[in-house]
């Protein structure tokens, strides 16, 4: 426990332990290693529990940040995750990839005269702690409504909607075109920044709550919207993202070695081309690469 005589503002921001540069240069594993309970409580103790928490104003989903941090200060991690779940169903993801420096942490009062409270790291800590000790608590579900909703797309948008609806008591089925759920979280964001296992674990939590997931289901091809309604769905949420590449219609763009950004990312991340030939999908590693961005040509 933190010595109360130590002024909160005097406690330095707890640094997130990371893989050593020489080690991480040779692997694709997550760079930050994560905090332990002791350093998380110490970091949480830096929060001065503002009466008007500016951090919450900076959070797009309005998580009760001082509320969950207070629970960490008291060592009540199950209560902390329940508090976060009230507003955010993907804390392990958001704790890793939200731009906190521009949102909650960018607004933190402690940050006006020093380093802001590490809100993102604390959110990540709570989510990881809960994942390792799954069983501890579950989000509260309302009574069943008898309504059935189809969610098309399993990116963060679809997963969040599915979670909100299942907690409101509706029956939810998520239809995903790819063979794995997660959208850009798995095909766009690299493993060293957001491990796929984290995303799949959040999806598993959603399934435990009762959401059904159907992969390899391209809505509009394997099943139409009309067919979904005819199948008894009362509502359909389209969370299909913006994954279709826009080509420039220039000569040579179909040649081998020319990729759209999405194809390159999907090969590299979802299909694990960086582990070829252990995984089947190859990707071309060029020493000279041209990146075409709309009207600009950038040489890298
Ligand atoms: C390389 C990259 C890095 C990023 N890094 C960050 C970051 O660090 N932090 C951050 O906050 N944001 C980041 N973003 C942005 C963020 O990932 C997107 O804003 C977010 O994923 C959008 O979520 P979504 O659910 O709307 O769409 P998507 O994530 O695109 O998910 C849509 C899903 O719908 C599925 N789908 C599409 N059509 C159909 C269909 N007909 N039937 C069934 N399923 C279908 C797709 O397969 C996909 O799984 C990044 C984006 C990219 C590309
Ligand atoms: S603004 Fe900073 S110090 Fe104030 S409640 Fe939020 S996290 Fe705590």
Topology:
Blueprint: H1 21-24, H2 37-44, H3 54-57, H4 65-73, H5 77-85, H6 91-97, H7 104-107, H8 119-132, E1 148-152, H9 156-167, E2 171-175, H10 184-187, H11 196-208, E3 212-214, H12 225-230, E4 235-238, H13 261-270, E5 290-293, E6 296-299
Helix pairs in contact: 2-4, 2-8, 4-5, 5-8, 6-8
Widest beta sheet: strand line-up: 3-2-1-4
Topology as H/E string?
Answer: HHHHHHHHEHEHHEHEHEE
Note the beta-strand portion.
5-15%
> Which ranges are low-confidence, i.e. pLDDT below 50, for 5 or more consecutive residues?
none
- The total number of structural domains is 3
How would you describe this protein?
- The chain folds into three domains: 125 residues, Fumarate Reductase Iron-sulfur Protein, Chain B, domain 2 (Orthogonal Bundle), CATH 1.10.1060.10; 91 residues, FAD/NAD(P)-binding domain, CATH 3.50.50; 57 residues, no CATH class.
- It is 35% helix and 8% strand.
- The chain is built from 13 helices and six strands.
- Strand 1, helix 9 and strand 2 form a beta-alpha-beta unit.
- Helix 5 packs across helix 8 and helix 6 packs antiparallel against helix 8.
- The mean pLDDT is 91.
- The structure holds flavin-adenine dinucleotide and iron/sulfur cluster.
- The site of iron/sulfur cluster (SF4) has 15 residues, from helix 3 and helix 4.
């Amino acid at each position: 426990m933190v010595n109360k005589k130590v002024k909160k503002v005097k406690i330095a921001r707890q640094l997130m332990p990371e893989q050593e540069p020489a080690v991480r240069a040779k692997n694709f594993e997550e760079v930050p290693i994560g905090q332990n309970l002791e350093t998380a409580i110490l970091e949480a103790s830096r929060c001065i529990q503002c009466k008007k928490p500016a951090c919450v104003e900076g959070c797009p989903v309005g998580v009760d940040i001082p509320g969950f941090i207070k629970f960490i200060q008291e060592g009540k991690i199950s209560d902390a995750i329940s508090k976060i779940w009230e507003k955010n169903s993907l804390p392990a993801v958001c704790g890793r990839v939200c731009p906190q420096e521009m949102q909650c942490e960018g607004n933190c009062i402690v940050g006006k005269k020093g380093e802001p409270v590490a809100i993102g790291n604390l959110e990540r800590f709570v989510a990881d702690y809960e994942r390792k000790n799954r069983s501890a608590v579950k989000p509260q579900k309302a009574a069943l409504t008898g309504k059935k909703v189809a969610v098309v797309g399993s990116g963060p948008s679809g997963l969040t909607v599915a979670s909100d609806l299942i907690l409101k008591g509706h029956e939810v089925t998520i239809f995903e075109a790819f063979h794995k759920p997660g959208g850009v979280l798995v095909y766009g964001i690299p493993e060293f920044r957001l491990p796929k296992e984290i995303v799949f674990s959040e999806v598993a939590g959603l399934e435990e709550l009762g959401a059904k997931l159907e992969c390899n289901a391209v809505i509009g091809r394997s099943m139409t919207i009309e067919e979904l309604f005819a199948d008894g769905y009362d509502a359909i949420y389209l969370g299909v993202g913006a994954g279709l590449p826009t080509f420039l219609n220039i000569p040579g763009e179909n040649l081998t070695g020319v990729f759209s950004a999405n194809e390159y990312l999907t090969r590299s991340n979802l299909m694990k081309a960086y582990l070829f030939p252990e995984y089947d999908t190859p990707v071309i590693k060029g020493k000279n690469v041209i990146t075409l961005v709309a009207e600009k040509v950038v040489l890298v």
